[in-house]
Specification:
It is built from 14 helices and 15 strands. It is of the alpha/beta class. Helix 12 packs antiparallel against helix 13. One of its GO terms (molecular function) is double-stranded DNA binding.
Length: about 450
């Protein structure tokens, strides 16, 4: 099922088809395209590849009747990544530098795609294109706009050469549209008028992509995959997965490694010993100062609302107050009013914690610390799931943080010790807590 915040508004679609005059002819296009190129404008055939933008960040390219073509139901879908799966660069560069810098990934690709169409499959392309900018204003990065023009030119050439009713979805934003998240799949279902329950033959669908989590193989000279996002995307939408080598060349399945698998945390939870007592934070003094220490997304705020707010603690948070000085001012006022306080910030380094120890000494109150141990990858997953599932897990309406927020915390982090001046330290290891609906969403693959 799509995340709760996934809403597609038809009015966000806008036409950004490339102007015919800028079309380039390469050695890979067919004779019909070449003949049409030299015709006067008034005699040229209508463009067969039409571009538009859906859901604000998804660039859609459609060849002729890609959506309306008649196919058997329930529908079989053959979905493919684009770069290093359908095509590769002629130049050998990782990314195309021009619209004609492409070749088939393997000579068998076009024939295999045509056979799929003959067999009644809907053939679609689902590709992450984070370097492409869809911004139409003057502040759009020049490199991003250049990438957009290059990408549209390449896609036009590829689809015109295949002459198949194919739709291409390119996710350009760091949002629900980016694999392994399912925004492009949900847009596909909407465009093709499909329900994920009943309209699709999931058992005979497949997604083919090169981001498969494979390790480097010195014997064959193959490099480590840059991510596992294609394999995770297929898992999220509930269809089988193959690499290009497996699908087009019939090579045996290779082992892979996921750097982060949310199911492993749930499995640990389910198999945990029943005699292990849950972490319980107790209030030791009528007035005390408590620091949280942990990465963004480690569960600090959730822990406060579930375990500390009921005990009467006031909450001080820098995301709300915007500066440490303001946090210190508000916390000091609470302590003067004889109210216990929780400082719900990351408090990653010794220097930051020392400032709060100084406040406690000045106010002559005990200071304690709650240490949240979740790893950077787990925290990034938590933050992304929270931000992109709307009200389901995000009552404070927090936006998704950049990866730098987690790597930055890791760089600054020094494990807290009682010797710094704390009365005690309560350690909190992450454990998912939520409804079955929340767990189902949380267990998706959200990060690459």
């Amino acid at each position: 099922m799509p995340p709760a915040s996934l809403k597609r508004v038809t009015s966000t679609d806008r036409d950004i088809s490339p102007p015919p005059a800028k079309r380039k002819v390469t050695g890979t296009v067919n004779s019909n395209v070449v003949a049409n190129f030299f015709k006067p404008t008034s005699q040229k055939s209508p463009e067969k590849v039409i571009f538009h933008v859906s859901a604000e960040t998804i660039l859609v390219a459609r060849y002729e009747d890609a959506v309306t073509a008649k196919r058997p139901r329930p529908l079989k879908i053959a979905a493919f990544d684009f770069d290093d799966t359908i095509v590769a660069t002629k130049s050998g560069n990782r990314f195309s530098k021009a619209p004609d810098d492409w070749r088939w990934w393997h000579a068998t690709v076009p024939g295999r795609l045509k056979q799929l169409h003959h067999d009644g499959y809907a053939v679609v392309i689902v590709s992450n294109q984070g370097a492409v900018s869809l911004r139409a204003d003057t502040k759009a990065p020049k490199d991003g706009m250049r990438s957009l023009n290059n990408f549209k030119g390449k896609v036009t050439a590829v689809l015109n050469t295949l002459e198949l009713p194919i739709t291409l979805y390119a996710g350009t934003g760091p949002d629900l549209s980016r694999k392994p998240r399912t925004g492009m799949w949900q847009q596909l279902l909407k465009d093709y008028g499909l329900s994920d329950d009943g309209d699709i033959d999931h058992e005979n669908c497949v997604f083919v992509g090169d981001a498969a989590g494979r390790e480097a193989d010195k014997a064959s000279g193959t490099r480590k995959d840059h991510a596992c996002s294609d394999r995770d995307f297929a898992a999220n939408v509930g269809i089988s997965f193959q690499t290009p080598e497996e699908y087009f060349l019939g090579e045996p399945v290779k082992s892979f490694i996921r750097t982060f698998d949310p199911a492993s945390y749930v499995n640990v939870e389910l198999t945990a010993q029943t005699d292990v007592s849950p972490i319980v934070f107790t209030k030791k003094h009528d007035v005390e100062l408590v620091l949280s220490c942990g990465s963004p997304g480690a569960g600090k705020s959730t822990f406060y609302w579930q375990h500390m707010q009921p005990l009467g603690y006031e909450r001080v948070n820098q995301d709300i107050l915007k500066s440490r000085d303001k946090c210190i001012k508000v916390a000091t006022q609470c302590l003067e009013d004889r109210q216990p306080v929780v400082v719900d910030n990351t408090n990653a380094d010794i220097e930051t914690r020392a400032a709060w120890i100084g406040v406690a000494r000045k106010m002559k109150v005990p200071i304690r610390l709650v240490y949240f141990t979740a790893s950077a990858k787990l925290c990034e997953h938590n933050d992304t799931a929270r931000a992109l599932t709307g009200h389901l897990m995000n009552p404070e309406k927090r936006t998704m943080l950049p990866k730098m927020a987690f790597t930055g915390f890791t760089a600054r982090h020094r494990e807290p010790r009682v010797e710094e001046g704390f009365e005690d330290i309560t350690r909190v290891d992450f454990k998912f807590e939520g409804s079955d609906e929340q767990k189902a969403q949380w267990m998706r693959y959200w990060i690459s």
